[in-house]
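Entry type: protein chain
Record version: 2
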Amino acid sequence: MDLLRKIILLSTLIIVANSAPPTCYSAVLKLSKGIMVSMERLEKFSVTRQCLAHLPKLYINVHNACVVIKLRDHIYALENLIVPECRTLKRIAFLKFRIERLHNMIARLCHRDLVFYVDDCPALERPPKPEEDIEK
């Protein structure tokens, strides 16, 4: 009986710990990682690879002060893709939606929750070094 109580107590603690609402910062981190994974996947498909070839490279670091500018530039590039068929692809449209959402979160909703450690705009165009990866 004592073992049963401990199991019930442990399971309720796990449920309570997982039910905490995400902070604005954690939501930004999760969305930025999701965008990066989506971009990596889209680069593997031949149809979407052609669309992404016309876009500037973007490696999102939410701790970089230039991230808002780069996200806005990326949204503009997605809205004005050279190949008209790319604009109608659902995967590209969903990527644009997610980047717009992240831009809105960083620029408006979570602006006070974020701390910018770096102010290096070219760093958002090259892959991060392993020691620079803050989110690990």
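Comment: The mean pLDDT is 81.
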